[in-house]
């Protein structure tokens, strides 16, 4: 059983400056909830109740959000405003939260390695909170992936088709189709130019990783931009036939940039807030 979910949340959020100069990008609100709360809700719905967060300087708001605010709760006690805290209270009641700091920004691979002390020697999920994923017609993306892990017992990455001209924004896979929307990965390239991309199947911010990934990351040399890329470590697993890519069911919004963030806000307002499902 997978119980743990890691949230790398130490990045600067440079695509959303100046809003993220003093506010963690993971705390940007989509309607009335911060991005990271959507991610934790998705994790809990998938049965992952042990939440580990890799933070950095200026990220104390994340810890404060997943804590009780006695003064606030006392102020609104007995009023109709209490309903706004139902969702966050559920998370505080059903999840445990642990934190560690990434002191240097050396890429996603390094951020995941920083969380090793929180995860230990067991499989775990990774969620990038600025990728907001929703599925109105069934299981959430992490729930879908946990079910696949229970069947295949190997690393799983979530993928979606992207515009071939935008492959330079993603890790891109090539693989052999082994089932409905399932590929056994045989190649994986970090942010390839369109003419060099092995496909237009891009990895998005949902992973299930087996614990051997930590040692593989440690053995990985810095890649593009001097960063330790998770795709390089995953490629080592893929060479042993141990990585599956899954074209998930649902919608994904790239909330690290203004356009995707606005789309996500409009979508959540129409489907959650106006329907009374936002709390």
From TrEMBL:
Nucleotidyl transferase domain sequence ranges: 9-268
SUPFAM superfamilies attached to this UniProt entry: Nucleotide-diphospho-sugar transferases
GO BP annotations, alphabetical order: UDP-alpha-D-glucose metabolic process
EC number: 2.7.7.9
Enzyme category, top tier: transferase
GO molecular function, one term: UTP:glucose-1-phosphate uridylyltransferase activity
Matching InterPro entries: GalU_uridylyltTrfase_bac/arc (IPR005771), NTP_transferase_dom (IPR005835), Nucleotide-diphossugar_trans (IPR029044)
Signal peptide (UniProt feature, chain positions): none
Cross-referenced Gene3D superfamilies: Spore Coat Polysaccharide Biosynthesis Protein SpsA, Chain A (3.90.550.10)
Name the UniProt record assigns to this protein: UTP--glucose-1-phosphate uridylyltransferase
